[in-house]
Every structure is written in C-alpha cells, then in structure tokens.
Design a protein that fits this description.
Layout: E1 2-11, E2 16-24, E3 29-36, H1 46-60, H2 62-65, E4 72-75, H3 82-94, H4 97-102, E5 132-135, H5 140-151, E6 156-160, H6 164-173, E7 177-179, E8 181-183, H7 186-192, H8 204-219, E9 223-225, E10 237-239, E11 242-244, H9 252-266, E12 271-273, H10 281-288, H11 320-330, H12 335-342, H13 353-359, H14 374-387, H15 394-401
Parallel strand pairs: 1-4, 5-6, 5-9, 6-7, 9-12
Antiparallel strand pairs: 1-2, 2-3, 3-8, 10-11
Helix pairs in contact: 1-8, 5-10, 11-14
Length: 402
C-alpha cells in the first residue's frame, strides 16, 4: 500500500483551503480535509502561499498516514529537496514516538519521505508588520504568554482553533481574534474504530506551528508566538533506543528545527518562538495566578479538545493533566480557590494514586500528557505540604510516606 499527498486548492477570499490525501494498493481510500479562516482581501504572494500550503499538507496528512503506516509515500508533484525530506522524516519519526510505542511499531527505517533531484526550494521574502500573533490553546501557558505581551506593551493579536474554551479565553484576553476551523474527513474517524488500523497521538503542536505561520502570512504579522515551556523538553520513556517525548512538537528541539526550516525553505520574514521556553512550571503558575479572571474559564484537560466532545465539564478530574494542574495551582492558591476551580479536591481521590506516583517518578514513567517533570511536581507538593491546608488529603499523606 502507498500513501499519496494529492495536493490542495485555496480560496482566500472565501477563507478556506482544501487538502487531498489517499491510499492506493490494498486499500483505495480518498480523504479531504478543510481549514477555514476569515476571508482575506489583501494582496498575497502566490509562491509563498503555495509553499506554506504544500508543507501544511504534509503535517495534516500524518493523521491519515498513521492508519496503516505504509512505507511508500508519494507527493504529487514532489516539491521536496533532500534537506526538506529529512525534516519531514524527523517530524514523522520523533513526533510520532508515543504512537509507535503504544502500537508496538518499529519505527526504524519506516519513514522515508521522497525527494526530487529537480526540486528547487528557497525562502521567499515577504516582509510583515512588526507585530505578533499568539496561538491560544485554552490553558495556562498561552494565557501567560499573552499576559506577558500585555505587560511589555507589544502589539499582538490572537489565533484560536475550533474549541469553545479557546474562544472564551481569547475574549477575556481581549483584542482581535482570528478564529480558525479544521474539518477532518469523517472517514478517518470511522476507520479509527475498525480493526486493522492504527490510532493514537500525533504531534498536534507541529500542525499549530504551520497554521500560525499561514495566519501570520495572510494577516500581516512578523512574529508567531506559542506558550511552550521548558518541561516540554523532558521525555517519557526509552523505546527501541530512542527517547519518546509526548511533547516533542512543543520541545526546544522542534522549535529550532521548525524555525530553521521556515527560514531556509519558506520565508525569513516570519519568526516562531516561545517566551516561556526557559520558564519552569512553578514560574508559569506563579504568573498565571495573578489573573483570577481566567480561573473559571481556562482548561488544560484534553477531554475538552477531542473531536465530538459533548461534555460541558472543564476538568474531568480523572486524567494526569487534571491532577498535575491541580497540584501546580494548589501550591499557590488556597484550598477553597482550587476546589472552586475543579469542583472537588483531587488530592482526596484514592483512584488517582497510580497517576500520582507516575507524576512524581515513583512508578513507571511520566504520563503521556503535557505535564511537568517529577522534580517540578515534587516541588509543588512540598509547597502544598508547607501550607498545611491539604494535610488530611490522601495523596498528600501518601507523599509524606515516600
């Protein structure tokens, strides 16, 4: 079987791009995915936007390719140079590490993007206004990034995707908001439920990086800003000789690779970075708690960011992300404030003990979630213990026995 990147068509005045993918061989399946955004009325560089969309197609295709993980990849027509192909080999290998681990797939030699000896790909100059575009994820990190920009009086606007929490958070931050929407082919969701297909984590932050690049080019911004912190560099578990990192597409390694790729092959006039890169989780939370206006609105629980999520709960209270954020906030907030946010005291939930021990490094390995390092979690627990408000809680009692 082979996977084919079949191209794309854009209507910027309408505000949409449609991408085409498909399998050929044992299975013949075609997919269509659409990205929507506000209509664009200004002049655009056709060559630059073709380059951005060509590359967006490759990151979007990862969700479809992973159904069967075929070794043969075809790009019609092939625009990749050898160096570009190597970038995509890395993204599809390191970015999919958790997926390979959970599906017991040997990734060595699996991904070999084709390249054309005739391909010529250089950067296109496209000077943008000296202002920033911040991606809003709905959690504490992007909120802190935006508030830091407010403090410095830098000009910025916001980008959200099609999740209500992101839109609500953006309204509180204030200013102009560019809302984008991603429409995944329904056939993908159907196939994900069938036997014989693979399913699992994809490097979603790499998609957001390319989406923000497109929005910056379309709406005239020089800087693309994300809220990726230092702990994103910390891996989870070694698998087949490589460190698997759930947050690889948020890591400094990806940030540097992506920045260099954009500068070398797309445009030097849009710059991607994270103001939180050198901040610890404690430092980020210390900033976040200065803004209680977000307490009832924000959420980091991934159940809010799943396709077809029907829940109106901001925190499921059962996942590693919920427990991690609860602990992080409880180091700074009063018991009443933190319980008001989550609706209950998660440190009293005995069923969370296995996750708790993974978070502090006492069992297995760090959960496959965007959570801090065991050292950061233990630092927060030390602060909670010193405050004394959760002394009677089950998980704090357990922590003191370790």
């Amino acid at each position: 079987m082979k996977f084919i990147f079949k191209g794309h068509e854009a209507n910027f005045k309408k505000g949409e791009v449609i991408f085409h993918f498909g399998f050929r061989g044992e299975k013949n399946i075609d997919f269509i995915e659409k990205i929507s955004f506000p209509p664009v009325v200004t002049q655009i560089s056709q060559a630059l936007f073709k380059s951005i969309l060509d590359n967006m197609m490759l990151i979007l295709g990862i969700s479809y390719w992973k159904l069967y993980c075929p070794r043969e990849i075809i790009i019609e027509p092939n625009f990749l140079t050898k160096d570009q192909a190597e970038f995509w080999n890395i993204v599809y290998t390191k970015g999919m590490g958790e997926f390979y681990y959970k599906n017991k797939i040997d990734f060595h030699g699996l991904v070999k993007f084709p390249f054309s000896e005739k391909a010529i790909s250089g950067p296109i100059n496209f000077p943008r206004k000296d202002r920033s575009l911040i991606g809003i994820g709905g959690g504490k990190d992007s909120i802190v990034a935006a508030e830091l920009f407010k403090k410095s009086n830098q000009q910025f606007d916001l980008v959200t995707s099609d999740f209500p929490i992101q839109i609500e958070v953006a309204k509180i931050i204030g200013g102009k908001v560019i809302n984008t929407f991603r429409q995944i082919d329904p056939k993908l969701l159907e196939l994900n439920k069938k036997k014989g297909t693979y399913n699992g984590h994809v490097p979603i932050s790499a998609y957001y990086a390319f989406l923000l690049l497109l929005m910056a080019a379309l709406y005239d911004y020089k800087y693309v800003i994300v809220g990726n912190e230092r702990s994103a560099n910390y891996g989870n578990v070694e698998y087949l000789g490589e460190m698997i990192n759930h947050q690889w597409s948020k890591s400094e390694e990806f940030e540097n690779l992506f920045s260099e790729y954009v500068k070398k092959f797309i445009t030097p006039d849009i710059i991607y970075s994270s103001p939180l890169r050198n901040m610890t989780e404690s430092q980020i939370i210390g900033e976040f708690v200065k803004y209680p206006k977000y307490f009832k609105v924000f959420s980091s629980c991934n159940k809010n960011f799943k396709i077809n999520n029907q829940s109106d709960q901001r925190w499921c209270g059962e996942c590693p992300k919920c427990l991690f954020v609860f602990i992080s906030l409880a180091a700074f907030l009063s018991r009443k404030e933190i319980v008001d946010i989550f609706g209950k005291n998660l440190l009293e939930n005995k069923s969370l003990l296995p996750l708790f021990e993974e978070l502090i490094g006492a069992r297995n390995f760090k959960p496959f979630e965007c959570v801090g390092t065991p050292e950061e979690v233990k630092e927060a627990l030390g602060k909670i213990s010193a405050k004394g408000e959760f002394t009677d809680s089950f998980l704090i009692k357990h922590f003191k026995t370790l």
